[in-house]
Amino acid sequence: MTTAVRTPGKLGLDPALVRRARELAARAGRPVVDLARSHTTVAVERATLRLAGLNGADPEGIPWANRLVDAVRDQVGLEHGVCLPVWEALRSGEYRDLTDLAARAATRTVPFRVPEGDAAVRSEAAARTAVGRGIARIDERRREREELVRRWGNPKGPWIYLIVATGDIHEDIRQAQAAAQGGADVIAVIRSTGQSLLDYVPDGATREGYAGTYATQENFRLMRAALDETSAELGRYVRLTNYASGLCMPEIAALAGLERLDMMLNDSMYGILFRDINPVRTFVDQRFSRQLHARAGIVINTGEDNYLTTADAVDAAHTVTASQLLNEYFAKEAGLADGQLGLGHAFEIDPAVPDSFRLELAHALLARELFPDAPLKWMPPTRHMTGDVFHGYLLNGFFNLAGALTEQSILLVGMMTEAVVTPFLSDRDLALRNIRYVLDAAGGLAEDFHPAPDGLIARRAGQVLGEAIDLLEDIRERGLLDAIAAGTFGGMRRTAEGGRGADGVVARAAGYRNPAIDLLETT
Amino acid sequence: MTTAVRTPGKLGLDPALVRRARELAARAGRPVVDLARSHTTVAVERATLRLAGLNGADPEGIPWANRLVDAVRDQVGLEHGVCLPVWEALRSGEYRDLTDLAARAATRTVPFRVPEGDAAVRSEAAARTAVGRGIARIDERRREREELVRRWGNPKGPWIYLIVATGDIHEDIRQAQAAAQGGADVIAVIRSTGQSLLDYVPDGATREGYAGTYATQENFRLMRAALDETSAELGRYVRLTNYASGLCMPEIAALAGLERLDMMLNDSMYGILFRDINPVRTFVDQRFSRQLHARAGIVINTGEDNYLTTADAVDAAHTVTASQLLNEYFAKEAGLADGQLGLGHAFEIDPAVPDSFRLELAHALLARELFPDAPLKWMPPTRHMTGDVFHGYLLNGFFNLAGALTEQSILLVGMMTEAVVTPFLSDRDLALRNIRYVLDAAGGLAEDFHPAPDGLIARRAGQVLGEAIDLLEDIRERGLLDAIAAGTFGGMRRTAEGGRGADGVVARAAGYRNPAIDLLETT
Amino acid sequence: MITAPDLDLDLPTLPRTATTVRPYGDTTDDGMVQVSFTLPVPHGPLADGAALQLARKMGIDRPLLVHSKPIGRDFSFFVVYGPVVHEVDLDEIEVVEREYPLLTAKEANSAVSERLGRKLVVLGACIGTDAHTVGIDAILNIKGFAGEKGLEYYKELKVLNLGAQVSVPELVRRARVEGADAVLVSQVVTQRDAHLTNVKELAAELRAEFAEHERPLLVVGGPRFDPGTAAELGADRVFGRGTTPSDVASYLVHALTGAELTG
Amino acid sequence: MITAPDLDLDLPTLPRTATTVRPYGDTTDDGMVQVSFTLPVPHGPLADGAALQLARKMGIDRPLLVHSKPIGRDFSFFVVYGPVVHEVDLDEIEVVEREYPLLTAKEANSAVSERLGRKLVVLGACIGTDAHTVGIDAILNIKGFAGEKGLEYYKELKVLNLGAQVSVPELVRRARVEGADAVLVSQVVTQRDAHLTNVKELAAELRAEFAEHERPLLVVGGPRFDPGTAAELGADRVFGRGTTPSDVASYLVHALTGAELTG
Ligand code: B12
Ligand code: B12
Ligand SMILES: Cc1ncc(COP(=O)(O)O)c(C=O)c1O
Ligand SMILES: Cc1ncc(COP(=O)(O)O)c(C=O)c1O
């Protein structure tokens, strides 16, 4: 990612402490992984069907994947997964294909049953073949990306990441292309408010989002194609990002793989904390979605930055570190490599706090040194941005500088209108000019940045690491679900039973089969 | 000035080289000092009269000081100075006072002569008494400042310096007060275009300057009084600055001392280079004006920053260093203390130059380490500011940061509208917010800033020092006047004979007397 | 020794009592403003001309086009400075001045218990798909805002905070069930005027559902609301940026118990 | 293996051929602009109301007052965003297009020697109290600007650069003495419209001093000039920001030798 050679250990962190922190995160996370392995969700099952090629929606816009999973669930439940009953039905009935089956199932005229014995073996094999085609397609898109990157090359410095958020895919495309022409390396299409709470993925090209554009397979395709066009023109591979989080995390992950998205927002707890989605639902969905991302060669971006929009960035700094360690554990367990871990953090300290910039450097450097091989995602100020756009532009410049000094990998470029509107075309262009100046003028300043051994920065980093370890200690003891319920992260209290989408969680039966998971875990 | 303890020697400059540079500057400067000591100018003589209490102007606005010096010169020349003939006339004629004499002299009815023997002694003594009163008044104003500063205190960090430039002293006052309330430590009232080429100091309060306000005794008084009012209200002594440079350098220096201005722009070469004023005139005027500043406890600000508006800031960096060393030599020779040497330099590297910010740090740190005890004046970007006010605001932020990292003493705060208009009220307020953020958030970052020993910054600083030494070597050989004629500074070629005001220079006769110079040099 | 500054300035008096003012760049009445915008015109002389035309239409006399830059191929961005011809008539401005006293929590509590004789029920939510709860939490949660405790701290207020993304029908239903005296709604997302649409919809539903005398007070807040627009939105009161809990508590006491005083 | 992107976008066509456009924030025709200004009104609700009124007068429909801050005691500073109602009519814009070919130094030289048969005399200066010579030097000095050599480099041009702060009478006198074909004047200081006043004065003096057929061409330049204002100023041509020497040389050749071609 960033090619600069990092001087190791500017902070002089104690390696034993770092090891201990990782160990605690693993121990705190393991019970949750067990939960994920012993449950499925409607979204996991729908995603599996999508891999098998079931896309499109009925005339009301409800996707066939939803129709089919709902029908199966109604009749035989999801304890065994959707595949056994679906391919059993396909094998035994007169259905042209999955879509045809789904359409008929929607009228409740398909009798589903969970096959056993030989029938089960055959149905599972058929399902595996179908799902395998989807996974092969994902593999193909991954190779495609690798070839394009080889052809056009990667950015030299940190990846410059910009959002578009018009609500209209066509305006988004114009703006994304202009941003890429202006120097963006990564384009994120922000989603419409409310999409994450939809328990289905909308269909087709859309132009009516609020403060963001719906994530749909067609929108993914259109934007990726537009960026391919621009990449070819620029001779630089421009990456595309969207959001996996929400009630449809696994499905969107599948679609992202199929449409060659390059990075995805995917956090183990964001949905729980900020969308009040049921914790178990989230953890189950998260694991499957990450397995898909791992396969697709997609870099995930975690959401620790969000904590600092509701909790204080100084007081809660250690919760970011603790969460990063948890996200790392969950990600690796799901098969993601270090190079795919875009762990999130942010420049959100109140600028009125004395030495705020140096404290930011302490936090950012701590993350950098804890995760030396991860493409860290560094988020700009949002909470303390105001309508004073001039000052906001300056603050964003200092954010960019902190990113350069601490060698962050993915720089989300801040918008001077953060407190005003979703970004204007010109905000993005100005933001690019801002980061370009900072990187060109001061990009190499890391060479001269050496926190005084017992200075403010080193002391602060040590303190945050210490507090993170204490917190992980506590989480391991009381359990992660309990810690979340107590408001540990972002000050949001979410109980294990509460939240949306809980009814979409199903404990797996002994005979649960999901060829997608099998394929992802074994190949 | 700045109270921070400076880590000495971040650049590892060779002390022998530094000594050599100083020595060369002294040797290059000495012949010019000799020139200054052997000449006088109309402005020096007028300033002397002003010290003796001659102020005001005739009905056409021509100051009495001009009238009187011109009359004396017409009749007996200025080789002996204005004092001998003037006090001789006063002693022998029926004039109420100096003004009365001047008024009559203007009608050419006063017979002047240069007294000799006893008469000369008596005239000189009378002159000394009169001039001594002016100097005593300057001493009093200095003590006044010292008391006010004791009472209200000095700024803690660097001095934050802002300009007002409306052309109207009344608008200037409103804006200066608002700026002080917003955090300014020093207010500079920019002069009207063209004033520096006037061979007299306008009289009274003025409201019709272009892009600046006339420097007059009354304007000085009004602004100082307004700032005293605001200082009292804020409990912080707000300093006032104006410009000595120009054809009236010595007179304005006298008025500044009399009206308790606190700092003055005063450069040994600015008038030559940027106003095409005769070099000899400038050097003579400069010496006397600096003697006055020394007495008045005024901090001078030199003008090396200007070179970088006409010459390239990288190519010409060493000319700044060489000039600072020359300015230092001239200043000390005139009696100024280290603490009064606001040597100038600037952040003017084209931001499109790779590593521009680090190069700025190299230049700024070099000045800091060459002149550890001087209150360096650090000027913001002007030349590469554009109508993109957002970007300009950012660039100013990085200027502020460079100032903090290299512990500059007087920070001129940049205006986002630099390329557009003389500052708006709001530009100044935004600029204050900018510097406040930078100092509060990153003011202590110098602790963590350690240029890599053989890194870009240290290498660049060493290179500039080396080039400055070579240049001083060359200047010493060919002579400073010749070097100036060759376009060494700011790319401006000015011959020793050319330029405005040459006819105001007069070689001193053996019997030249100037009690002001005597008093300034002996007490 | 130091004499009081003898300040004898003949300053032009500020137009504090005048009814019209103009923008101030660096001189009284110079009218100077700064404007920036993008036009969907490829960069070049035509685009520059277009920018100047727009500036003139905005009332900028002799506009200075100080920055002009292409964005992508189809757009150009501009910065313009110049004097506007407009004057602002201060007499014509309708200021929503607080017409009620600012109360401490104690005062508010006693007013409620004395005048209402029961707890005042406050229902809060972010409606529509808006999930920005920080603003409403700042007003309602004990933690509060800007050093003031939130409404939950007021013992005579019964506060129910429904949180984010509550639908209008659900909120109206809960208002009925809880017997809410006031419904407090936050809207932060303003894109495509979502905040205005949502509030108008809620106002209409409340009016449809409740008779006027039993209708809970509708109090709306968010950073991009103009307090002057309550009537237009069908709300009883609109709060903008930087509202503090005591602003709101004082208003509630005034609006919901004030009648008792005179009635 | 990699197929060409199958891009089938039904993009709204840009109004390139349309004659009217509106500012673009993030959606076609949203009309969004950003404005900032100071009002001489103490900070508070009245000042905020005044800012909104001004924004409306500028044609901003539903202005968002996003920033409001006191400056000192008597002033307030504002940032406003919002959609303007105005449309820009591209058909109405008069663009000063270059009506002459851009010549290389060589081409310019041969045009002068062929058509004029003698050197073309160019006199340059900063007039009034303006001492900003960098701009005129960029045009005249060999060193030049933006990689182009200045007019001194053109061997068929005789260039005299009088430098800074030249008075109008002095310049007119020199124009006569040197037999100048063109007078090139730079004005950078614009405060109180100094640049406009000075140029108008020079134009009048030149006309008073010379018969029209012998009057040297008056070419004016500086960063804040609008090239469309030549007639108004009494100049023959006005150059703005970013002018290069060859722009000027080509114009001089066109204006001073072009007549020969047709005449
Ligand atoms: C924090 C934040 C978030 C957090 C929210 C966490 C949470 N639980 O609330 C997170 C990270 C989750 C988030 C997500 C998103 N956000 Co957000 N977010 C912000 C941010 C940075 C700060 C908002 C805030 O908390 N302000 C602090 C509070 C205290 O201020 P306040 O809300 O103005 O409240 C005060 C007053 O307005 C008033 N008030 C407010 N409500 C009420 C109610 C009543 C009854 C009363 C009396 C008073 C009152 O009193 C409060 C105290 O003074 C702003 C940018 C900014 N700097 O403003 C963007 C911003 C609001 N977000 C925005 C967007 C678009 C989103 C997303 C939709 C992006 C996306 N598509 O993914 C998502 C989804 C959210 C959704 N579905 O609504 C946009 C809205 C653009 C617009 N104008 O339409 C903003 C402006 C950023 C931007 N420029 O794009 N966001
Ligand atoms: C360099 C500079 C100086 C230098 C000038 C050195 C010199 N020998 O020229 C110094 C330091 C001496 C200086 C002093 C002052 N300056 Co000054 N200075 C600038 C600065 C930073 C850059 C100007 C510049 O050189 N631009 C580069 C050249 C190449 O661009 P240009 O002039 O636009 O020229 C191009 C075109 O316009 C065109 N062009 C220009 N002239 C001509 C002529 C012809 C015939 C043609 C065809 C084309 C042409 O072609 C050129 C090449 O493309 C600007 C701020 C800025 N960033 O713009 C302030 C600025 C111009 N200065 C300003 C002021 C006020 C002053 C002072 C008056 C301040 C004071 N009171 O002390 C003094 C006094 C000067 C005076 N008496 O005029 C103001 C003017 C404000 C206004 N709009 O009225 C500015 C804008 C700064 C500010 N915001 O306050 N300054
Ligand atoms: C990890 C993560 N997921 C998703 C989102 C977007 O939220 P929404 O659920 O509104 O699409 C964010 C917001 O920044 C995020 O950080
Ligand atoms: C040393 C010095 N003197 C004087 C001036 C101002 O110039 P003038 O008033 O001569 O136009 C400057 C400009 O910055 C300067 O640096």
Structural descriptors:
heterotetramer; A: 523 residues; alpha/beta; TIM Barrel; nine-stranded parallel sheet; two-stranded antiparallel ribbon; 11 strands; 53% helix; disordered N terminus; C: 263 residues; Defensin A-like; Rossmann fold; five-stranded parallel sheet; three-stranded antiparallel sheet; 7 helices; 21% strand; disordered C terminus; binds cobalamin; binds pyridoxal-5'-phosphate; catalytic activity (chains A, B); Cbl-dep_enz_cat (chains A, B); Lys-AminoMut_A (chains A, B); cobalamin binding (chains A, B)
CATH class of the domain at 15-29 and 243-462 in chain A: Alpha Beta
CATH architecture of the largest domain in chain C: 3-Layer(aba) Sandwich
Q: Compute the gyration radius of chain A: what is it?
A: 23 Å
Helix content of chain A: 40-55%
**Biggest sheet record of chain C:** 5 strands, parallel
Reconstruct the topology from this structure.
The complex is a heterotetramer, with 2 copies of chain A (523 residues) and 2 copies of chain C (263 residues).
Chain A: H1 15-37, E1 39-41, H2 42-51, H3 64-76, H4 83-92, H5 98-106, H6 117-152, E2 159-164, H7 169-182, E3 186-189, H8 217-234, E4 239-243, H9 249-258, E5 263-265, H10 270-275, H11 279-296, E6 299-301, H12 307-310, H13 317-333, E7 341-342, E8 344-346, H14 356-370, E9 377-379, H15 389-405, E10 410-412, H16 425-442, H17 456-478, H18 480-485, E11 505-507, H19 515-522
Parallel strand pairs in A: 2-3, 2-10, 3-4, 4-5, 5-6, 6-7, 8-9, 9-10
Antiparallel strand pairs in A: 1-11
Chain C: E1 20-21, E2 32-39, H1 45-57, E3 64-71, E4 75-83, E5 88-89, H2 105-115, E6 120-126, H3 134-140, E7 157-161, H4 168-178, E8 182-186, H5 194-209, E9 217-221, H6 230-233, E10 237-239, H7 245-262
Parallel strand pairs in C: 6-7, 6-8, 8-9, 9-10
Antiparallel strand pairs in C: 1-5, 2-4, 3-4
Residues 191, 195-196, 243, 245-246, 265, 267, 270, 275, 303, 306 of chain B line the site of one pyridoxal-5'-phosphate (PLP).
